[in-house]
Amino acid sequence: MADAVVSFVLERLTDSVIQELKFLGGVRDQVQLAQTQLQLMRGYLKDADSRQGESEAIRIWVANIRDAAYDLDDAIETFVLKVASKRNASLLKMFAYICVGGIYLYKIGSEIKKITTKISELRSSLPGDLRESGGDTSFQRQQERRIAYPHIIEPHVVGLAGGTEILATHLIKEKGPRVVSILGMGGLGKTTLAKQVYHHGKVKRHFDCFAWVCISQQCQAREVLEEILTKLISPTNDQRQEIAKLKIDQIAEKLWNTQRERKCLVVLDDIWTSDAWRSLQAGFPMNEETESRILLTTATKKSLRMQAKMVSSSNHSCYPKIYEQKKELGMEMLQHCKGLPLAITVLAGLLARKDTVDEWNTVHKNVYAYIRRGTDLGPDYQGEGYEGVSWLLELSYDNLPYYLKLCFLYLAHFPEDYEIPVSTLTKLWMAEGFISSASSEVMEDVSYGCLSELVGRSMVQVGKHGLSKKIKTCHLHDLMRDLCMLKAKEGNFVHIINYSIASETKETPNGRVQRLAIYLDRTVDTYGPGKDENYGHVRSLLYFIPEYFMNSKVSLQLWSLLKNFTFLRVLKFEGVLGELMLPGEIRNLVHLRFLSIKNSAVSTVPSSIANLVCLQTLNLPGSWNFNIPNRNMFSKMEKLRHIYLPIFRSARDKRQYIFSPKVVNLHTVVNIGIQASSNLDDFVKLTNLRKLGVITFDGGEKKEKGTNIIFKHLHSLSMDSFVEDQAIPWNIVLSCPNIYKLRLLGHITELPEDLMYLKNLTKLTLTYFGNLKDDHLKVLEKLPSLRMFFAWSGNFPAHLVSSEGGFPFLEFLSLHWLKEFKEWKVEKGAMPSLCKLHIERCYDLEAVPDGLQYITTLKELTIEGTRPEFCSRLGEGGEDFYKIQHVQSIIITNIWGKEDWEKMVC
């Protein structure tokens, strides 16, 4: 991990940083010297990282290098911030600052010089075994272990017969695919499946010649092409010597022609990168009709789903009771494998040599350790791929570029089984500085691309997808999380204080802590790490808090920490109830880039928050009572990209906050107040907005003209209007032609036909709307991409007709608390894709529509808070049962009588 940290710091010491120091020669020279020393050191760090467990000397040496790199980063950034604060001053003031600040310049120069000297001394004190190895030997050893030998067939392979037949059939088809791929995370069984196909009878009879090659992570194209050619043509010794003299293009041509002339099967096992494939592609006739085929295995985002059975060598027919006990233990242990075939193989290998129930119980108690390390397997299994899963997963980690290593290790902050919001995660990576982008790239897109790459490498698993099919949440496979935690602990990347476990089991930090995650518990009063010199350089502080957590002591203890955590880049403190306040000392966190106190009972922010000029993300509580004392508070925050303001506060105060004129990269603005007469001209420079939430308040004469601005990047728009009889300003909606999500709260008198041009609109929510007429809904029926429609608390037409062909792609419809809504007719062919229908508190609705019987896609119907007579019609034998009898899930709850309804309304 030190290798990743050093690479990260070197990336940040770019010319742009040096430019800040160009007038300050002494400091600039010291930075460049430190940069050189780190570059010279980096060659040994990859091997040193992987060998920390072999020697305490190596571990200490690596830790010192890592800390020195962080020190350099902190010192330079602190200095650059001071220089930048004077950047806009006149030359005279700048000169005066340099003169008056001479003592500080000397101090910072001395500090950088001290760090540089330390790095130089560490390079001179390189442990002898690292110096002799020349670096990367451990990586090479792992690479050798990864090689698969096609002639060795694994015993007891189960669950692959179906996949083997399918792949074999594809390979021997006359018009079959030229390349067949086996995809999935490390340990999933890709190579095992490929071997079964390689030795399949149909395959052996169909092809004339065969070649199996393992592609190393450092793919040497010439060597690989020569190896394939040699295996396909079986050359004599003289021919081998001739081939050895050929250039790579000549070898590629010879290999190309061989595959055109004969039926060849080439297996490329374990390709890690697209670059590796591109380097080999010249040797394969991809664009010609040939009977040769390629079978490749690689780790990608699509995991294979396989079924496996636990294999036991016990004679269970003689001992049925023992067999049942083992079977129960085995099934429980199998759950820990989470469907990973390599883990199942390791576990089966362990248990095959355990005869007694007590021995099985011993494995059961420490099942994760056994699976990871392959402990106590016995001599018959060593060297046969039963070493455990950790080494294979670790190989995937070692193959990551440095920035992805850092992104992956950051996942160690999150508790087990935690569904991680991708939107938050990508912002945290950006705040830590892991994400760099060229001027033409959007940083959020680069950050999301890093997540996609980790998913593509099968390091991270997808939880949920959003409306635009982007990944919304993610998590780690349990065994991958073990690797993540192991590597994070090994490199002191993050320290976790978990108050949900006994205090005697908590670990003290082993060296300087760079990042801190605190898991709170309701039963403990002390929630901070305490005073410890190891916490002086914390860059990231994330609290994970139980739901409905109320404890004001947490606030007091957190704020006391802020006096010492002056290098913080990230502070996440969400979901704490009770009397809380944000202290003025927050002004000292000048490095802070991410601050989130959402869902916490913080009532105000101090004016000193304006000092946080590096902030990229600011997420404030959504409370009505939250107070922002100064509307100029954000005017100096030039790097703001995402800001979430309090709900309703803008409208109540009729206050428009002032942002810096240099804030051109704002992507998210939520709950910003504008006049009802506005046409968003105030946002003229914010054309990169992707998410916008506005609250309109009264003021000024309404403008009839349309907006002149087109927000082509905006994907999500929310508009809340509390102006009586003031209609939703449709000119603003129509200035966002590419939105996916639209939420409107307020008076609606019309739905313009131009809404049909919102071709990407997928989710629509209407709340507290006025009298919506039937012809208005005809407009909504024509939206070409609408999949989710929520109508909440408004006046619906008394008699509503859903037309044939209307809402062609609608999947989820929610009707909630709609007044005067009595009769609903659904014509045959309407809503042909509807899957879920939710009806709640529509007290006047007399019956579900007859046309529901024609919607065969409807799988779930939920009805809540309606009259008893309405619900009785839907029961089996009821007069409306025929309309919904095909629906798989019907949930009816909270049946209200007339008195209940009248009380609720009053």
UniProtKB/TrEMBL annotation:
Repeat recorded as keyword: yes
Domain Disease resistance N-terminal, chain residue ranges per copy: 5-88
GO molecular function list: ADP binding
InterPro entries on file: Disease_R_plants (IPR044974), LRR_dom_sf (IPR032675), LRR_R13L4/SHOC2-like (IPR055414), NB-ARC (IPR002182), P-loop_NTPase (IPR027417), RX-like_CC (IPR038005), Rx_N (IPR041118), WH-like_DNA-bd_sf (IPR036388)
Protein's UniProt name: Disease resistance protein At1g50180
Disease resistance R13L4/SHOC-2-like LRR domain: residues covered: 555-863
The NB-ARC domain, residue ranges: 167-301
Signal peptide start-end: none
Organism name: Prunus avium (Cherry)
Domain spans labelled Disease resistance protein winged helix: 414-484
